[in-house]
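Here is the promised in-class demo. Please do not try to memorize the tokens; focus on the logic of going from shape to residues.
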């Protein structure tokens, strides 16, 4: 990020703060105070300590810690400050969301400042909206995964509600309403430039990418049709839907096809093979809320571009062999190759093909106010490894949220969750909104 951007962000927020009205005199009344303000300014501060128990026999532990002290437990101290502001004048609206992180891990201190979103929106009519800047498009209807989100960064399935960083785009929305079975239709074309200093993590450089989404509200069903032209990434096609069967029961789904998807796999000796094929992914899910305020979210995800059970087992075997070579010779060449393969896909959050997800949230059980427990599990249906995460949230103090969460991983040798670097993680998240 350019060093000038933090000062631009600060100037934006300071200007918004400067518009705050002075305190009124006692018992005075001003009609303008009841009117909607043209600006908003809010955010949150968060502190999140983490304690993790390591699995020193796991392949990914060896890959991650081969040149560090052989820790049985690791500690992290993570802090975050996120500020969000907007200002509207006439048909124009400016929006900015910045994220600042300061973390202390086994690698030492690290800090980062990013503009997650920052764009200008111009609405020349009630039907049209033009947007230029950095924006999260939020395509797709899934909760834990979004295979049809063709121009967004992937979610973290362990915490899908975490805010994402957008890409710099030029986009527009045009919406029309109708009388009949088709109630609403809209189209959203997007231009996404990918160059050395602009969106350079999206894909290969020096492309002006194009994508488009068409939305329909038909028979009370939300439907999206999505297209991404070939450019920095292969051409892709997607679709999703969402429908409320009743007031407390919703079903949703997504599908995507990535044409000529590149795929690199390795055998247990580190010999790599590159393949190109059409990757077909899909997701089916539901959300159900009971009369006692228990919410169930369930999803099945097929990742067509993922690795087979045999391919992942071979990769873990290669990591083990690379570690033996490193400890015997001191050469890290094979470990570096294993790390490069991790960055090319093996190290993705969920790199394999078949997953089940279930999350259960109970609001204030046994009439315990301000207390919300939840339980989340994710199962790799291919190798039968899984994670399970109980958590509790306490909101007794206004604007303060305390969350205690643990994640337990289970799986045999050679499986996804069995070869993760850690076996257990406990974190406390204290978040204060303002």
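The designed amino acids, position by position:
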């Amino acid at each position: 990020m350019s060093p000038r951007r933090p000062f631009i962000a600060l100037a934006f927020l300071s200007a918004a703060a400067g518009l705050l009205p002075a305190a009124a005199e006692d018992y005075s009344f001003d009609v303008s105070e009841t009117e909607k303000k043209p600006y908003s300014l809010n955010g949150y501060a968060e502190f999140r300590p983490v304690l993790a128990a390591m699995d020193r026999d796991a392949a990914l532990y060896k890959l991650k810690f081969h040149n560090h002290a052989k820790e049985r437990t690791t500690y992290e101290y993570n802090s975050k400050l996120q500020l969000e502001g907007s200002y509207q004048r006439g048909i124009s609206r400016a929006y900015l969301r910045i994220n600042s992180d300061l973390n202390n891990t086994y690698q030492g201190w690290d800090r980062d400042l990013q503009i997650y979103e920052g764009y200008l929106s111009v609405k020349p009519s009630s039907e049209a909206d033009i947007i230029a800047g950095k924006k999260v498009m939020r395509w797709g209807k899934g909760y834990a995964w979004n295979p049809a989100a063709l121009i967004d960064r992937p979610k973290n399935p362990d915490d899908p509600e975490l805010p994402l960083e957008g890409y710099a785009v030029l986009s527009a929305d045009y919406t029309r309403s109708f009388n009949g079975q088709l109630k609403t239709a809209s189209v959203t074309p997007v231009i996404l430039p990918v160059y050395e200093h602009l969106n350079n993590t999206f894909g290969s450089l020096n492309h002006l990418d194009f994508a488009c989404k068409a939305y329909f509200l038909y028979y009370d069903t939300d439907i999206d049709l999505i297209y991404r032209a070939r450019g920095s990434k292969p051409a892709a096609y997607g679709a999703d839907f969402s429908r409320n069967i009743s007031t407390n029961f919703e079903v949703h789904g997504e599908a995507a096809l990535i044409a000529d998807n590149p795929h690199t796999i390795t055998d247990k000796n580190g010999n790599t093979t590159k393949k190109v094929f059409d990757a077909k992914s899909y997701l089916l899910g539901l959300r159900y809320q009971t009369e006692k305020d228990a919410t169930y979210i369930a999803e099945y995800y097929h990742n067509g571009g993922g690795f087979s059970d045999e391919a992942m087992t071979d990769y873990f075997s290669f990591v083990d062999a690379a570690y033996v070579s490193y400890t015997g010779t001191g050469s890290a060449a094979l470990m570096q190759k294993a790390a490069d393969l991790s960055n090319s896909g093996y190290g993705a959050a969920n790199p394999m093909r078949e997953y089940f997800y279930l999350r259960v949230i109970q609001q204030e059980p046994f009439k315990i106010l301000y207390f919300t427990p939840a339980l989340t599990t994710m199962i790799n249906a291919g190798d039968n490894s899984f994670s399970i995460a109980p958590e509790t949230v306490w909101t007794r103090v206004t604007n303060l949220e305390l969350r205690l969460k643990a994640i337990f991983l289970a799986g045999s040798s050679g499986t996804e969750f069995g070869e993760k670097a850690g076996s257990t993680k406990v974190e406390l998240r204290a978040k204060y909104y303002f």
